[in-house]
Design brief:
homotrimer, alpha/beta, Udp-n-acetylmuramoylalanyl-d-glutamate--2,6- Diaminopimelate Ligase, Chain: A, domain 1, 40 strands, 17% helix
């Protein structure tokens, strides 16, 4: 990859392309995005979180992206956007296009003669593409990645280095898959039989929609019989485990280190916090938010936020509450007894 | 890998090979296994969980595998088996044999002249096998995998692509190792000395028995001094961390995302739920079941089920219980005081 | 790698090189370190934990490393050291030097003509080094590893096989990076816009100091705008997730399976237990210890030990306490009411 020198844009050009309302000198040139704290005059910063209001007063940024509530309250050039963080994402994408990569197959890549490679595809060094696999137009396949027999990678997808896609799995268009991700390994299907585990063949696939991003070292297992399904627009962070036959609804975002057990069905537009778990065979409704470190053990039928992390404390305080917690059932009984005694005492008196 | 067209079997052939009792038309042909829900007439389904009894009435499957309690209660052809899920596993293995792979070393594989490769071995593209490593007969080593100096892979093992086996580690017969697994990296051995961490060399190995399966991106560290041991028939799901000098007893099954800290010893036939943890230097008896998201902080001497996940709730309810939990020690004291006061009140009256 | 036959050292040679005080026969030769339990007469063991005092009486070791409190209390040869575990680490390093590896670039390695490779560097098979990357003197780059465009690997570093370093990332001197680690994948930056997630380009880098060790399958994301920073001497175990813009202070040690969310800042000399989590945008002071399975949800301003794991129990007992926990807020109210009633009862009497 060759990285181009960053090109600069005037604020006028930016609002011309991306909309928003510019207040201030339209001729200011910016070359890069920046945080308010580290901005220099040739950069554009943003404020999406009131926590950083203080930094707005001292930033050296050439311009800043803000929400409606700060319109015209600033001396510096600012762009007013309905959603400053999304606007910032667009500005950053404008200033930081993916470096161009020449189409072509690296001579060290090992591509089966019956694999199908679309136009404009870049296949990096040491990539292996097996029999019957299909890589659609304008994909980039990073060094050392593996695309198994009959697997399909949709148009415009980007596989970073050392990704493994097992046989028969399907990725949609514009997928981004980070290094070390494994798509389509066998689900954990075992049956106990005469004191030994029998392996249950995992004959389903992983089928992934369009515009899905998959983080580094995330694993998505193939289905046991039917397929594991990831719908359009799902965003998975790093080190997530998606078990066999899970179904994740469109536009759900899952933070790092989450594990989803077999056959659970997650709704659309859910947000699942880091290191949470979803037990197997559950259904989670649309628009459910799960807090970090929460284990969901029952289906969730209503949108809302659900939580189940132990509140951390100093070890000294924790020891006390944790010891009491072991006896909480008994404590509850003691309170019930006290209530009865007090009630009887009153009756006795009356 | 070339995938054969699925061959069909008559029900008579199936019970002829696998046992069980057939009730219904022995000439029915099935080509694949299926879920009750999605079955077609050329498939065979199974019922191992009463939760799916309703689907049994409407399935289009050509036949179904059931337990004794449903014998002759169905109009459709059915095979009665003592353990329907295990029987299903055997049927699926019969209908879905691993695709044949020609023996041979891919020309891009880099195999040290002092490595020993058994007969019938398939070594995929870009595999690296170092000095003194030994790969026994009928193994398949997936593309991009690495077998370190002096490592040994037992007969009939299957390493999927991009597996790393460090020097000196030993895998038994019929191992299945999924992509991204790392066997034999250094354990986390550090000693604080004059405000800096010294590395403690990790000179043990990983020694793995027969019939072990290791999931995608699972890591098993080599021993610090003695070896890390995984006994026969252990089944490890994805993204598990096994620290140095852990010993896992035969036929134990561990779900995804579990972490086992250094030198702990897990018994035989244990089942450990997803994302659980075992602290270091503990002993877990045979036949122990650990629920998901449980941290085991003391040795477990008796078989049974152990649990320690925070019960999840709506965020609103959780906030209330979690806040109270911080004061639970104090609450316990208050209840004790109430009990004393009430006791004294009674004495005062009597 | 070729493994040398272990060389033996006399106890006199060991204290000559490493200090400590020898009591007993200085001519005893040892060839390897060992645990007390499995030691043979040609090995040296150590006692750093009183838990193993019983083994000291029956060990067959040729010599043992102990602390001051055991000076001259043993019949066998012993070396007295202020910090026996650190002394043991040094002895083990003396007896187990890294096997020598010849400098040179494996012919299968694919090294961009504009990459810079220092003297004495060993580049293994199938390694890919991209445009503008720099690998300083005496590094070893393991088979199948990937060093992205413009990335820098400091002097004397060791990358094990199948490591991925994304473009522009910087590793300091003497780094040790284990297999499957991914350094510099995109942070999880997404902005919701008109019911779809927009990707926020991740333009920062990962910048890692000297003497850092990174475990197998650990992932460290590049910064969203500014860099993700790992200071000198940080030790990361396996399967850790470090999100974008995290800053980890020098000499902090983190156990396996920990997740640190975006922009959090961890102090120096912290110790974080396995599978813990640090929520985003927090600050953790120096010398903080976090217990295993703890989720830190607020900044920690003072050194000390902090804990938040649910105490595990038999499933039967857990069910009882967990059910009560859901009603703990209500129980607290009931106790308050009892206190009021008792107080009023007393007032009524007086």
């Amino acid at each position: 990859m060759e990285y181009p020198l960053p090109k600069s844009f005037s604020l006028a050009e930016i609002v011309g392309r991306l909309g928003g309302e510019l207040i201030g000198d339209a001729g200011i040139q910016v070359r890069q995005v920046a945080t308010l704290e580290k901005a220099t005059p040739d950069t554009i910063a943003f404020l999406a979180n009131e926590r950083y209001l203080g930094q707005l007063k001292i930033t050296r940024a050439g311009a800043v992206i803000v929400g409606e509530q700060l319109r015209a309250s600033l001396d510096m050039p600012h762009i007013v956007a309905a959603n400053p963080y999304a606007y910032f994402a667009r500005v950053s994408a404008l200033l930081n296009p993916l470096p161009a990569v020449a189409a072509g197959l690296h001579p060290s890549a090992i591509i089966h003669p019956r694999a199908i490679i679309g136009s404009g595809v870049h296949v990096g060094p040491n990539v292996v593409v097996e029999d019957g696999a299909a890589i659609a137009a304008d994909c980039r396949i990073g060094a050392g990645s593996y695309v198994g027999a009959g697997a399909t990678i949709g148009e415009g997808s980007l596989l970073h280095p050392n990704v493994t896609v097992y046989h028969g799995c399907i990725l949609g268009k514009r997928a981004v898959v980070h290094a070390g991700a494994v798509i389509g390994a066998d689900g954990f299907g075992i049956a106990m039989d005469e004191k030994r585990w029998l392996k249950v063949p995992q004959i389903g696939r992983v089928v992934i929609g369009d515009d899905v991003e998959i983080g580094a070292n995330t694993t998505i297992d193939r289905g046991a019989i039917d397929d594991t399904i990831i719908e359009d627009g799902v965003k998975l962070d790093n080190q997530i485990q998606v078990a066999h036959n899970v179904h994740i609804g469109a536009h759900t975002a899952i933070a790092a280190c989450v594990g989803i057990a077999g056959s659970s069905r997650i709704g659309r537009y859910c947000r699942i916090g880091g290191a949470s778990g979803i037990a197997g065979h559950l259904t989670i409704a649309d628009h459910v938010e799960i807090s970090a470190h929460t284990l969901v053990t029952k289906s969730v039928r209503e949108a809302g936020t659900y939580t189940g992390a132990y509140p951390f404390d100093t070890n000294r305080n924790w020891r006390r509450s944790a010891a009491s917690l072991r006896n909480l059932g008994e404590l509850t009984d003691r309170v019930r007894l006290l209530e009865q005694q007090l009630q009887q005492g009153k009756k006795g008196k009356s």
